[in-house]
């Protein structure tokens, strides 16, 4: 009986030891370091607008890589090419055995959108380029400040009628493509040939318009050859300028100076020349298509300056009105961007739009209440094409 009693005591002792070991393992597990979900907040410090984007992801990594925390969709909310981002992450660890201690880690980085690489690169660049600074109504205020007219008496009408107000008016009577080197022009008080004044002025846009004095003297082929030399010379002295080659404008049906079929033949040769040159900075502008009679091809009566050959003031307004949308499709020269900023043309365009809205509101008021405002026709706008 004594042996059985000793065996029972031994078993009881072993059982207590097993329970003690299990209890120690549970206590050890409870004392192990703790982690919880981390949250990262990206704050874009933009001078014009403040936007935040938050991302939350469970992780046991002490500190997430900041580049992975950037919410790239927020890049589309600003037009600035540089943005400052403050990345903040929280990590919870056990440093004292049982007490939780929170440590905050912050890092500030700069994102250069001009060098941004990722799935939204194209969208980011388009967002920047489509900013209000380069809206059509703003650009159309800048173009006249850098548009040079080179040509004959018809071309000189842009300055004579005040359609353009700048110092780049290099046009005069009797000039032709075959004889342009025989004429002198004034720029800054100095007289010089067309290449001299263009070299000195370096305008962003050069509008070449001549040919009425050539149609009765040289052949269309000779005209195209003369023009080819002019374009080549202009490109050599103004490599950064955009060259606009304007077609010869039509004459009225009553005029006997020449005939519109001959003018059309000369224009076709000119158009083919521009197509042959195949340069993105040389464009053909079918000027006559905006001021002619669609049925006859002759100069419209409201665009006739009085002699059936030269143009009226409204004709020049139409030519510019239809030229500017053509320029909108081209790269914006740096000098135009500088003018927009220096002259604050964004504010000027906003003011003009506001005044136009007020006029439209007044017009609607008169229409609604039956006052004697009269009916207005909306002029049709044609679209020029680029060769």
If you had to describe this structure to a student in words, what would you say it looks like?
With 387 residues, the protein is an alpha/beta fold. It has two domains: 38-121, no CATH class; 132-345, SGNH hydrolase (Rossmann fold, 3-Layer(aba) Sandwich). 39% of the residues lie in helices and 18% in strands. A five-stranded parallel β-sheet has the order 6-5-9-10-11, with helices on both faces. Strands 2-1-3-4 form a four-stranded antiparallel β-sheet, with no helix packed on it. It has a two-stranded antiparallel sheet with strand order 7-8. Helix 4 crosses helix 10 (334-342), helix 4 packs across helix 11 (345-368) and helix 7 packs across helix 8. It is globular and about 110 Å long. The termini are far apart. Mean pLDDT is 75; it is low at 32-90, 109-122 and 365-387.
Terminal Cα span: 119 Å
Number of domains: 2
Q: Would you count the extended β strands for me?
A: 11
Number of helices: 11
Oligomer: single chain
Indicate the CATH topology of the largest domain. Answer: Rossmann fold
User: CATH H level of the largest domain: which superfamily?
Assistant: SGNH hydrolase
As a percent range, the share of strand residues is 15-25%
Residue stretches low in confidence (pLDDT < 50, at least 5 long) are 32-90, 109-122, 365-387
List the helices and strands in order.
HEEHEEHHEHEEEHEHEHEHHH
- Give the overall form: globular
User: What profile does the largest beta sheet have?
Assistant: 5 strands, parallel
CATH class of the largest domain: Alpha Beta
Helix content percent band? 25-40%
CATH architecture verdict of the largest domain: 3-Layer(aba) Sandwich
Based on CA atoms alone, the radius of gyration comes out at 38 Å
Q: Within the largest sheet, what's the order of strands?
A: 6-5-9-10-11
Structural class computed from helices and strand pairing: alpha/beta
Mean of pLDDT? 75
